Amino acid sequence: MFFSGDPTSRKRVALGGRSSKERDTQKLMEQTRMERDRRLWQRKQNASAIKIQKCFRGRKAAKAERAKVREQFLSRYGSYCQNAERCCFCPDSDYFRQLFFFFNARNAGDFTILVETCRGILNLVRDNDNIVSLFAGVDYSAVLALVDHRVKNLAYICILSLYQNSRSHFRQQLLVPDADSVMQATVLLEAVAALIDPKLPWACKAVSYLCQKNVFALFREIVLAERENAKTSSSTGNLSGVEHITGILISHSGQNSCSCPNVDPKFCFSSQMLTVPFLWKIFPSLKGVFSTQGLSQHYIHQMSLCLQNHTNLLPSDISAEYPGYACLLGNILEAAGVTLSQPACPFEMAVDLAAVSTFLLEALPPIKSSNAAMIEEDADSADDIQIVLDKDLERQIITGIDSRFLLQLPCVLLQINVLFGGISAVGDDRSVVAIGAACALLHVTFNTLPLERVMTVLAYRTELVRVLWEFMKNCHDNKRWSSLPEHLSLLPGDSPGWLLPLAVFCPVYKHMLMIVDNEEFYEQERPLSLRDIRSLIVILRQALWQLLWLNPTAPNASAKTTSRENTSKQNPNESIKHRVSIVASELLSQLQDWNNRREFTPPSDFHADGVDDFFISQAVVDGTKANEIMKLAPFLIPFTSRVKIFNSQLVAVKQRHGPHGVFARNRFTIRRDRILEDAYNQMSALSEEDLRGLIRVTFVNELGVEEAGIDGGGIFKDFMENITRAAFDVQYGLFKETVDHLLYPNPGSGLIHEQHLQFFHFLGCLLAKAMFEGVLVDIPFATFFLSKLKQKFNYLNDLPSLDPELYRHLIFLKHYQGDIAGLELYFVIVNNEYGEQTEEELLPGGRNLRVTNENVITFIHLVSNHRLNFQIRQQSSHFLRGFQQLIQKDWIDMFNEHELQLLISGSLESLDVDDLRIHTNYAGGYHKEHYVIDMFWDVIKGFSLENQKKFLKFVTGCSRGPLLGFKYLEPLFCIQRAAGNASDEALDRLPTSATCMNLLKLPPYRSKEQMEAKLLYAINAEAGFDLS
């Protein structure tokens, strides 16, 4: 470039960001790396090709050599081994060496050679030849290693050939009973059985070799391939070859003298064969072999050790309907019935069996009974993935845990003589292990299987309740609960020791109490004495308080039932705590019912010690621990505190609906002589919201004239008391009386009133309105009807109130010592309503089902259920619907039936004149020390109880005082002076009242006699509100 005349040089900037020299370096490095990778890949490719060629050449050479040896073998011995002689099987012969070298099970010619070889061996053995001398010659010890090698390899290739050819032309021969000895499969199976005969000196090594070569896995595949054929052919009862060989193998492995090395548990008999669905149907004789004590004890103990290590040893599931653990459980339970029935069944085996069954049951999805499944079908979420077992497999498991199993296993574990009721003395550690194993199994059983069959057997045919109670009582007295979790894998070590025993004891004892009669419970004190029950109440109360208040379970523990399986697997400790809190509260509630029938312990024994004002304040707040306790175990809280909570809930609802008015928009005009019809017509037209509002009433007397008086609440209270008296009158036909004059729905009400169900709905609304407004009504309901307001079932012990004669007959049946079948009773019941007799079946086909000693408890339960629940189900259901329009279920669930009656009617204790005097105000010149007031209270105290109730109705509109005392009367009772001057004309006036204000207008009478006469006339006049 020519010089431009500018002495300065201009810098050149590369817009690419880096110099071309740098770019060239990077490109060179990248090319070098790629070239290096290409050379490395090429070297690997060459090395792989060499290995492949080497392998191919080796295999080709081996194949050629095998073909050469095979040709030599055939030319020497013939295609069917027709030239083979006895000497061919001796140690010096190369017969087996050549056969093992070229043998290929998939080669038809080789397979034929193997079959003919086995046939020849069997023929020689049948000819009274010694099989040991056949293989070893004169001295077995000199050629021991060679003979053992030949025998175990020959046995293995026979089984391997069967497996690899199981889908070929002779597949049907494998499991078919061995009637035709010429079948090829039969020859091979017979040969294997002969080679591993337990009497032979090499039996141990041969069996060990076969087990190490996983022959049980091969047998499993063979059996599964032919399972459907085996189901149809096993009915002949003959042994098949596979069954016979399996029996020899498991018998040898289970012997104490066996010196075989340990086999991988994943390929042992338990893991491979016991997971075949319905194994004992395919191999019925094998069940008897396995069920011998020593053998089953060996394999069950082996399984328990594997489960303790939480090792998954089971093969892949056949299908979703046949999971391996479920098939294993079904086969174990089916065989356990035979094992446990044998004399002197070992305690250790029972512990292992309980542990294995517990582990497998825990893995099962819950199995519901058909009724429960139909009830809960609609409740299941579509998103929940349910594991559905095959119905036959479910039936096998349920049948396995039958009455015999439930009787035998606890008997062995707990050392109980069921017939004589004796308990043998066992050591502390042994008893803890036994109780822990039994409770773990039963707890998981309760969560998995239908409860009705299990509970009935445990409650009525075993001494489980008494044994568990003795154990718990000793632990409680000696304070040694902590030792139990150490022996259980089901619970962590820091869990309370009483947790698992209570999880089993509570539901079983609760089920027992359903059919226990009053004489057994109170007089005979069976199964527990009243003293023991008082101790039990203390244990349950303390356990509940610890679970619910001191150490509550996690929130997810109270999830819906459909997620129970996942919850228990994720956190079994929390799941058991939640379960115990439910069953313990149910049992305590039931014991409280027994205490209400006949008091055997102070009611305060059911109250927790930690209930204070803070707890009460939290109980009304949703989502708090105290609120959860109120829902689950309300009896822990004193009755008066629960009444306060109930009243506060009513006040809160009234305040939410209060704006509708100070002025009631619902006004009833009621004819006193047509009170029921008028009330039904007018109240039935109200909406649920209107029912919560104020209702004002105007009465019309018999002459058609409206009565004087403005309803400020008092007339309404009078209306409620009169309408309830009329509606629940037995003369009206909707209700009947028990022998104790307690009311319950008339089962034949439909024969009297066409619209009887609508009337029951109305009566439910009516009772709810009385409770909603705090009006106590004198209606004594039967306990079994009040339980319907709580949506509970009634049981045998509720029957004496309804039908004492039927109750006596059922108790006679329960304790009948002879053959009940001879009484000619069937599962039917005769109803007799107003001369119409109808016969109903208690069970489908009950007319043909005779009552026997085995099903008499079920019969008693069904009869009680029919009379106490079924007959009044429609009336109770409609009554409940009307009742729940105003009173929520959560409010009622705070109280038991006895307490609910107090909420409805109050108690005589509330008519305490001294309490009324303390909580009385005075006006118009009266004061508490005024001589007229002293005279007044003396007169009231001298009244009979009936007149005191009439006086209370006269001044408040209700004959019952507030449930918690007159302190809670709103407004407080007040006595006002009437007739300002004390003239004779003024003193001749009657006392009057304003019930809306709980006000008595009392003239200043001069004497007690005059005051008593005037008061009695006023309260007995029954003049409505005309005296006002």
UniProtKB/TrEMBL annotation:
<dbReference type="GO" id="GO:0061630">
    <property type="term" value="F:ubiquitin protein ligase activity"/>
</dbReference>
<dbReference type="Pfam" id="PF00632">
    <property type="entry name" value="HECT"/>
</dbReference>
<dbReference type="InterPro" id="IPR000569">
    <property type="entry name" value="HECT_dom"/>
</dbReference>
<dbReference type="InterPro" id="IPR035983">
    <property type="entry name" value="Hect_E3_ubiquitin_ligase"/>
</dbReference>
<protein>
    <recommendedName>
        <fullName>HECT-type E3 ubiquitin transferase</fullName>
        <ecNumber>2.3.2.26</ecNumber>
    </recommendedName>
</protein>
<dbReference type="GO" id="GO:0006511">
    <property type="term" value="P:ubiquitin-dependent protein catabolic process"/>
</dbReference>
<feature type="region of interest" description="Disordered">
    <location>
        <begin position="556"/>
        <end position="575"/>
    </location>
</feature>
<comment type="similarity">
    <text>Belongs to the UPL family.</text>
</comment>
<keyword id="KW-0808">Transferase</keyword>
<keyword id="KW-0833">Ubl conjugation pathway</keyword>
<comment type="function">
    <text>Probable E3 ubiquitin-protein ligase which mediates ubiquitination and subsequent proteasomal degradation of target proteins.</text>
</comment>
<dbReference type="InterPro" id="IPR044611">
    <property type="entry name" value="E3A/B/C-like"/>
</dbReference>
<feature type="domain" description="HECT">
    <location>
        <begin position="687"/>
        <end position="1028"/>
    </location>
</feature>
<dbReference type="GO" id="GO:0000209">
    <property type="term" value="P:protein polyubiquitination"/>
</dbReference>
<feature type="region of interest" description="Disordered">
    <location>
        <begin position="1"/>
        <end position="26"/>
    </location>
</feature>
<feature type="active site" description="Glycyl thioester intermediate">
    <location>
        <position position="996"/>
    </location>
</feature>
